[in-house]
Amino acid sequence: MRKHIRTSLTLLIVALAAASFMLVLPGCAGGSNDSPGKPDAVGNRSADGASEATQGDVVSTAMVAYANGDQVLFVDQETQTPYIPTEIDDATIIVDGQQTDEEALVAGNIVQVTGNGIMLESYPGQYPGITKVEVIETGSPADAEQYADIVDTVFAAPDQSQVPVGSLSYKTDQADTSVVLNPYEFDWQWQTEDGQTSTSQVDGSAADGNGTLNETIVDARIPNAIDAFIAFSVNPTSLEIERQPLVKGETTKIDPQSDGEDVPCTLGDDGTAALRIEPNYLYEVKATFPQGEAEYAFYTIS
């Protein structure tokens, strides 16, 4: 369907993954070092100092560039790569030898980070596989001021005129994957600095009248039914998800006469939606935000 654009809009992608590529963090793999004359490799250590090294763990060192509750930004001290520990609330946090939570982290802390070493390639990076964070040097907030420009970029207040960008994240046996979801339809309004109300609208569809999918709709390659997560650059107030089965053929399409079915999802307090996805479906996501509504889509193939 031809899109009708009343106001031009450039989507800004700052903190979401731009592709499903992955980076492996530099660091020491946990385990023993059998070379004579060399100490054991650095591994996990518990609060009482006992070794908890696990084969395959990757240990790296980072500075806490920003910490405010569950909003945390690390900067790897070897590569100077900024990244967000996206599942830090599931990790073990050690401060002053005691187990605590991420709210005890302070800007300037030097931390030893243990995880699977797989970072999603985005800006900043996203590291969902962290299992442990231990403060090894207290430091001070002044030490983190060198990263002030990065922090301002990552945690800047969102531009109200920009329609949020989404991301679909899922994990298979082969990889942790994140793909960008751009809106194909939206109705948006916001207040300008002089107090005026501006509007922007795009009419579109995930598939044309013959059922052929819009070429901008991204795919998710999954071997079977798996858990997935959808997040946005601005937290939605509500979310509706519907799916339709794909039709076998030379092109990716749906039966335009078939009825869609609702997909159950859970919208968390952090704005992330959890759902179950299966191969060979088109999923359409309608998100409501304070400034309006937007629709996104992706399809799954095995």
Automatic annotation (TrEMBL):
Keywords: Signal. It comes from the Bacteria. Residues 33-54 are annotated as: Disordered. Residues 1-29 form the signal peptide. This is Uncharacterized protein. It comes from Adlercreutzia equolifaciens.
